[in-house]
């Protein structure tokens, strides 16, 4: 079997080595000519998978995307051709939720915000929105969920979803707004420019707007015009309209700006590889031999002990010990013009999830917050 895989898929060689010939490719420049004899194609989000890419290929039976988002894949075309498609739902949802937590911790320190007094509007309550809500629960931070599609499904008599949903307008009044919707171009709840001149101009400088879903969900030109006119919403932007071509003037108006790396924990990216491995095993009816834990390296710091009462200062310390989003912000600001958007992403330094760090807590200062937030427990 000839498998083409994106060179940015961690552990692809390890997972797929028993399947036959493995051919790595660069995601943005893959051509129809290159993949004309592929049996399986494993991509990430920067490869457009469509008729133009696959029309010359008569051998392909499987396409996988090691990502949550699938807006780069023409699923209708694959289905018409009888090509099986798998993505990796939820693979890096924890990573994105931890990006948001790190951003909140950083901004809380910068503006002396008491996190427990905030309400977060989570727009899109799927895998990522839910992981974020669990972390906010752990931190005692209030939130409101906005997801009209889930709200509609909830009306079905078989639904066991008991969550409460609010309208977008209400979510947009929260202290923090965090966007976790897919990019959709049509339908009643299309997310293309869900945040536009009209609703962006209602936001105030007391609010924080976080976008780590898809750039096209916010009208970047409208946002820039508002910022230039002195509108103050605080911005945390991981994704940009028209990537890899970023509206560079907008960067100066952000609190935190990064190169679409919210989902780039090693675990998150590698879980995508593992999920495609499992799907391909099922597709060709073979037994799985490998698990992600076979390949993940030890983290650089594996254990900390908390000896004082757990509070926002200690939270700040342990979150930043694993992931300080200011590092990625600095790389983005300094390197975008030097190496470019794709290269920053390709050379992303290893980042681990909270679970890679075991947190011991002395008995007299015991708190369950770190473990509920995702840090591992230790028997020490
Ligand atoms: N920045 C990054 O590195 C990453 C970005 N993403 C993006 O985040 C998106 C969301 O990820 P997941 O939560 O895991 O996907 P998901 O598919 O589990 O959940 C998305 C939710 O959004 C809801 N939704 C759709 N249209 C909506 C609307 N108009 N208003 C409110 N809710 C709406 C859906 O009903 C669904 O519940 C992905 O589609 C992907 O584009 C995902 C991973 C990493
Ligand atoms: O999973 C998704 O959806 C994402 O947005 C990924 O983090 C995108 O990463 P690449 O596929 O562009 O490496």
From TrEMBL:
It is found in: Cytoplasm. It is an enzyme of class 1 (oxidoreductase). Catalyzes the oxidation of erythronate-4-phosphate to 3-hydroxy-2-oxo-4-phosphonooxybutanoate. GO terms for molecular function: 4-phosphoerythronate dehydrogenase activity; NAD binding; protein dimerization activity. Residues 112-262 form the D-isomer specific 2-hydroxyacid dehydrogenase NAD-binding domain. It comes from the Bacteria. It comes from Litorilituus sediminis. Substrate binds at residues 45, 67, 264. Homodimer. This is Erythronate-4-phosphate dehydrogenase. The active site is at 214, 243, 260 (proton donor).
